[in-house]
Structures are given as C-alpha cells and as structure tokens.
Design goal:
single chain, about 240 residues, alpha+beta, two-stranded antiparallel sheet, 6 helices, about 40% helix, globular
C-alpha cells in the first residue's frame, strides 16, 4: 500500500533481480496501481528526443501531439533503455522475478529479460492500443512460450467478450475480429522498433531485439487460430469435456 492523498493506493510490484556473471546485481521494481494497472513512475525532468510522439509515430496511433506531446510507451521505457544500452543481446544473467504469489527464476539472455520487462511497461504505459492487453499484466508470466502467450491472449479476449455481453455490447464469440486486433498490436510493435532503431546506432542492441522478440511471439500466438493448432486444442479439450472430436 502507498498513501495517495487521503487514500491508500494499492500497488502491484514486479521485481526483476539480475545477477551478472561478473558479480554485479541490478534490480528493477515495476510498480502499478493495482486497481487500474496504470504504470506508476516518477516523472523525468528531461526526456530524449526519440520519445516525442511524432518521432516515427506508429501509423495507427490515435493520439494527437497537442494533447500528448510524448509517446507514452517511449517515456515509460527510458530508464530501462538507459540500463541496457551498453550490453549485447546475447549477454546473459540470472534473474529472479518476484510477483505477488510466486517467484520465477531463469538464466536468460538480456534480450529475453528486457523483453519480459517491456511486456509490463508497454501495456501499462497509457498507449490506447496496447492498453487493451492490460488485464494480462495482473497475472504476468515472464519468459512465456508462444503457445502460453496464445492461450493467455485468447482466453483474455474471450473473457473480454463475456464482459462486453454482460454490459449490453456485441460480443465476438467466434473470434472473427481477433486477428484484426492482433494486427493493430503488431503495427505498434513494428512502429516502436523503428522508433528505437534511432538510439541503437550508438548503443547496444538489447532493446530493439527485445521488441522484435515480443513481436515475433505475438505473431506466433496469432497463429493459434490456424487449422493445425486448432486441431491440437480441439482434441485436448473435447476429450476431457466428455465428447470425442
């Protein structure tokens, strides 16, 4: 809990504790408002030019410069990029990820670690497109496989349709718009890769490769609706729900 004015603000914290082979330790504590999953971050006095909204702005971005002079995703990632800028993607570290209910451990490349962290920052930063995936952050799963990512994303999408139906909206039970929605996410990821390629000219390649990995995982996840993978899930689910496919 943290005090916010006269009320107590519930804070959700994910801590990434890194231990490098050289013995150096580094911790990232990502704090979110538990009730909204908004990113809680101290404002910076100055921001780099590449955080400007119009600097390689994503082609599907609905924000206007007059009200949002800075890209919310870019602003959220400045501190993270500052740390990783001197490392190479293939550098490795041990990492402990501490969440509310459990701790995850893995020895991983820095691009994998940075990618897992970016997954929290990007959807909680205030980007109107990526914010639609924000509910998944409550159950953050670092280093997920493409099949884990697809299962989590599709179940979130279907649960969203249930909530929409309960509130008088038109649900998409057949996932007719699922691929289209994920396409918008991929456009943002690709656009952001172009944005940060500017800072990679002089710095390490961890950040841009981490974004590319996120995009690749998402692309594979969207393939779950392909016939071959649907056969896997159809057989598995129907067998255990009393029906044969």
């Amino acid at each position: 809990m943290a005090e916010n004015g006269n009320a107590l603000q519930r804070v959700l914290t994910f801590t990434y504790q890194l231990k490098f082979d050289q013995g150096e330790d580094k911790a990232f504590a990502v704090n979110l408002d538990y009730d909204t999953l908004n990113l809680l971050q101290e404002p910076r006095e100055t921001l780099p030019d590449w955080t400007a909204l119009t600097f390689h702005q994503c082609p599907n971005c609905p924000l206007e410069e007059s009200s949002h002079p800075r890209c919310p995703v870019a602003v959220s990632l400045v501190d993270l990029f500052d740390f990783f800028k001197d490392f190479a993607s293939y550098d490795e570290a041990e990492v402990w990820v501490r969440a509310m209910e459990r701790t995850y451990y893995k020895r991983a490349s820095l691009q994998d670690i940075a990618g897992a962290l970016m997954g929290i920052y990007m959807v909680s930063s205030g980007c109107p497109i990526l914010s639609k995936m924000r509910p998944m952050v409550l159950f953050h799963l670092p280093f997920q496989s493409w099949r884990e990512a697809s299962y989590r994303f599709i179940t979130m999408y279907l649960f969203t349709q249930f909530i929409l139906a309960r509130n008088g909206k038109n649900p998409d039970w057949q996932l007719a718009n699922f691929a289209e929605f994920y396409d918008t996410v991929e456009i943002v990821n690709q656009g952001f890769s172009e944005r940060i390629s500017f800072i990679e000219v002089m710095d390490g390649d961890v950040s841009i490769n981490a974004v590319n990995l996120l995009n690749a995982t998402g692309s594979m996840a969207s393939m779950t609706l392909a016939e071959e993978d649907l056969q896997f899930w159809t057989k598995l689910i129907l067998e255990h729900w009393g029906q044969k496919p």
